[in-house]
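Page 37, top half.
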Amino acid sequence: MSLSYRLPEPYVGQHRVTLDEIDEYEHVNNACYLRWLDRVAWEHSKALGISLTDCLRLRRGMAVRHTRLDYLQAALLNDHLMIATWIVASDGRLRCSRRFEVVHAVSGIRMLEAEIDFFCLNLDTGKPARFPSEFSQAYAPDSRVLTAYEQLDIALRQIGQWRR
């Protein structure tokens, strides 16, 4: 099965659902998805040239400001999932946003879509701080991603808004 993502050039991590992620309803507990997104965001940042070691050296990190999730399909024990992410916005100074998709590796079914807004945090003061130059470069969105994101139907960009 060929996997289809809404945006081009994803960074993709993989995950196999484990027993400790299954809740009383016999599907993955919703809190587990956040851990997966966080892990893939860190992997992607490292691939972009910003590791945890770099953040500690620079005394800057990216902190979550806002999270929007649409749970589309329940993941089950032993499901093999592909977790894609992209930088879809950055002001180059303080903030950036990531888009995520969790797709079932066998069926190609989209399980979750999410967007998380981040801000740069001074690790010494706990206050917002300007991006160091390394962050400005690493977290600049790919122009192909931006173009595709802007062309998405508005309903697909409104993650976390219940369509009544």
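Page 37, bottom half:
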Amino acid sequence: MKSAFLNEEYSDKKEHLLVKWIRKSDPFIPELSLIAFNQNAGIIGHILLSKITIAIDSLALAPVSVASPYQKQGVESQLIHAALKRAKELGYHSAIVLGHKDYYPKFGFKPASLWNIYAPFDVPEEFFMAIELTEGSLKNVQGVVHYSKAFSE
């Protein structure tokens, strides 16, 4: 899915490598690595949630990739909804995302700073968001998110 990020302004164009690094790490959760499949084109999208810690175990939603010809057709939304639903079914209670401030709120993400949760790097607060998969799960959580080593390779 390297091509999914070629035209993204805020991409380092290494998201495909991030998937590879996460898949080789302990925080990888195979059940939360989902694909979108098209009968004619094969795999057209991918989403990955992996373990992180704040003061509790949580999940990082990253990356979400959809092949260029299938972008803006709802594939990414379907992947996000499916991944968050599956995460909740597996007993996870929250997730963090670094992404477009106007896109992720439609899935229930809010600025993580509302819970006093912050990124371990400099980023505008409105781009660093969290979601409670279980109501109240972030109520007493605060601090800096600790990503797995895969995110810093």
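Margin note: The first helix runs from residue 15 to 23.
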